[in-house]
Specification:
alpha+beta
């Protein structure tokens, strides 16, 4: 392990020993995960608890009436896409009275990018951790357009692209994955880290390796001639820049879930946000969310497209932070020098950013390594006690979204410190130990 022992102020030697043992168990589960992309399937067929009138979304749960921006637009659009309402007013009323059930993705072994919306018919990546046997899911990426449900936009064009991914691309990809017998994601993640990816804001190397593997399978399937469906899949693989991110998110969710529920552990097992709040979960505290208001968008720093400024931005939610939870993304900034203007600013600051993360984590990942740090393992296993003691919060690479919807670039996000402190205080209490199960 790296850094200082994960002890709470005033904790005795016995408490320290028990906590260290709990954290060793939890972080071992995190780093021993072996994710495999098994298939792509409609959410209703594979996601636990999914119904025809359920919409999943990102972030800690809050009442429907509190949503007012891009995440609200995306949920209403999802209801219309699914045929759950005839118009926006009816969708709003059905969401308000609970006829359409709005559920946090994490409670259904699922994670969603930015708005995170997912309905029963939408295709999801199905990832299985071979070590723990756990499954996790993430909705398929919509493609290259900056206007998408993911980015808080709803219009006829978004609906058309969603249907294309659902009806054409996803069945073709499922067929290719079946031909391959599934795709192990661990080797691709390991290689991509040595090729300039952080696996959150940058995944160009991983995407190239994914395309190569899938298109080899497509060639095998097309021995009787290339079909339009094969061509559509090939075009999608060329253009869907964030596709691999969704696969990594599901892989990270499966790993983090395997590390949850260890009594006494201070390991973070989820981080996310909705339109208004940042939230986290901790292994030793079960499904409880610890939340705080999001920092002003003026604090975000990075690279924005088309002359936008932070005055044009708004939060729309997000669960791609699950990548940082397992030591990727901003935690591995030093692996992704091409992101320097999206993140810490210079190569030296990228190195410093990752080096600071070792102070708040429990272990260096044995497989995920960073060439610029002499192949040191990525800082893995965020410890709420160390965050609370040092005041250092996890470094998070985050997609930037416009107030009126749309992709605006990428930024470095610093979550609020208070939820980490809340969890650390609760875990230091004498009664801490058995994780509650309330959301």
């Amino acid at each position: 392990m790296t850094g200082r022992p994960a002890t709470a102020p005033g904790a005795g030697a016995g408490t320290r020993t028990a906590r260290d043992a709990a954290n060793a168990r939890a972080v071992a589960r995190l780093v021993e995960a072996r994710p495999v992309l098994e298939t792509v399937a409609p959410a209703a067929e594979v996601v636990p608890g999914m119904t025809s009138r359920t919409i999943l979304l990102s972030g800690p749960p809050m009442p429907w009436q509190r949503y007012e921006g891009g995440q609200r637009r995306a949920v209403i659009g999802a209801a219309l896409h699914e045929g759950l309402a005839r118009d926006e007013a009816e969708a709003d009323a059905l969401l308000a009275d609970g006829t359409i059930a709005l559920r946090p993705s994490h409670d259904h072994a699922t994670v969603g990018s930015l708005t995170g919306v997912c309905t029963a018919s939408m295709p999801v990546a199905v990832v299985r951790d071979e070590t723990s046997g756990r499954y996790a899911f993430c909705r398929m990426n919509e493609g290259p357009d900056r206007a998408s449900l993911t980015f808080g936009v709803w219009d006829d064009g978004v609906d058309t692209r969603l249907r294309h991914v659902r009806d054409v691309v996803s069945p073709a990809l499922a067929e290719a994955l079946d031909r391959m017998g599934g795709l192990p994601l661990g080797p691709l993640i390991r290689r991509a880290l040595t090729m300039g990816d952080d696996l959150h804001s940058r995944h160009k190397a991983a995407a190239a390796m994914l395309r190569s593997a899938v298109l080899d399978a497509v060639l095998d399937l097309s021995h009787n001639g290339v079909t339009e469906r094969h061509r559509a899949l090939a075009a999608y693989l060329r253009s869907a820049e964030y596709l691999f991110l969704h696969f990594v998110m599901a892989a990270a969710k499966a790993a983090a879930d395997s590390a949850s529920g260890v009594p006494g552990s201070t390991l973070v097992t989820a981080m996310n946000l909705n339109e208004k709040e940042f939230g986290l979960r901790v292994s030793g505290l079960g499904d409880r969310w610890f939340t705080a208001p999001l920092p002003p968008v003026s604090t975000l720093r990075g690279r924005l497209y088309d002359g936008w400024t932070t005055d044009d931005l708004a939060y729309v939610g997000g669960e791609s932070l699950i990548t940082e939870t397992v030591g990727l993304g901003g935690m591995a900034a030093a692996a992704a020098m091409p992101l320097q203007d999206h993140s810490a600013g210079t190569p030296r600051e990228m190195l410093r950013l990752t080096e600071r993360m070792y102070r708040i984590t429990l272990r260096e990942h044995p497989d995920h390594r960073i060439p610029a740090l002499a192949y040191r393992g990525t800082p893995c296993g965020i410890d709420v006690t160390r965050v609370a003691e040092t005041g250092i919060v996890p470094a998070i690479h985050l997609g930037a979204t416009l107030r009126d919807g749309g992709h605006a670039g990428a930024v470095l996000f610093h979550p609020p410190l208070e939820p980490f402190r809340q969890a650390a205080r609760l875990l230091s209490a004498p009664s801490a130990g058995t994780p509650p199960t309330t959301a």
